[in-house]
């Protein structure tokens, strides 16, 4: 079985002992027996504060939901929000209560999953305030493959905080090493590595059960398609929130399921099949409205390319339903559209590149990033 950083914590006693520890974690912060990292560190060491990312330290807050400071009922420790409307960063007042910040959240290896933005911001603030950051590393459930384009300068946001490819093929510990070095932050950074994981190992081979890292990521199969279908969050098409298969089901009231499935099936994309989807979301876009669309079924994760599938599906819906399809307005607190922040450029919304050019860009960016990241690999 693959061991995550929290499973190896006893061998790193000197890193934690005698320090006031603050912990950034969520529902996925557990060991291989599903014991909470909060409880483990609280029992073994001096845990003095908890810091809540999007969805909260207990994973009980929906996507985009406000999180306020409060007292954790189980440990009686203060919980400080890192998902505030006015700021998503650690403050001096928060950091005054700790000697080191520990980070333990299951990542997906996808650029727009906001937990890595929280980690990057923590890295920057720990460097600024001379605090140590300790990463309890976790395996990347999607392995080490790189896909998609790289975020362009000027398109940084909380849903894309660093120039990474859409699927970036690093663990969060490796990513922290990259950011610390490339930005010359000088943070005192310690990575407690995984054991038994390599870059060809995906979630099903790890021996771990799937713990939902967020409410919209109920299954491993969701993670497989997410790097491509998350692009629909910036459109007026439902990305499947409010159904049993978010990001696997895509649709809208005006879509003809059979027609769309036929269109996508004819593309003969590797490692994937499509079936008609008929659904009525119970929240989010088209709440309570009957929708039709497509259900994505990954048949071979080794050859399936989520970013290619997502872009092909987006292009198909834009083409077939040109008069009904739309990109959403600028994202909250930004002058840029959400789609531009997700895609990492405005090439999609401004139509400055054809689908073929975008796919070629995926290939070239992925190749360049694959080389760039090698310097920070902790695993073969």
Describe, in short, the structure shown:
Helices cover 26% and strands 16% of the residues.
- Work out the helicity level: 25-40%
What is the first-to-last residue Cα distance? Answer: 17 Å
Question: What is the succession of H and E elements?
Answer: HEHEEEHEHEEEHEHEHEEHHH
Overall pLDDT metric: 95
* Secondary structure tally, helices: 10
**Structural class determined from secondary elements:** alpha/beta
Strand content: 15-25%
Radius of gyration, whole Å: 20 Å
Spatial strand arrangement across the major sheet: 3-4-2-1-5-6-9
| Quantity of strands, as a count | 12
Name the poorly predicted regions: none
Largest β-sheet summary? 7 strands, mixed
Shape: globular
Outline the structure in words:
Helix 4 crosses helix 5 and helix 6 crosses helix 8 (306-320). The two termini are 17 Å apart. The model has no long low-confidence stretch (mean pLDDT 95). The strands form three sheets. This protein has a seven-stranded mixed beta sheet with strand order 3-4-2-1-5-6-9, sandwiched between helices. Strands 10-12-11 form a three-stranded antiparallel beta sheet. Strands 7-8 form a two-stranded antiparallel ribbon. It has ten helices and twelve strands. By secondary structure, it is of the alpha/beta class.
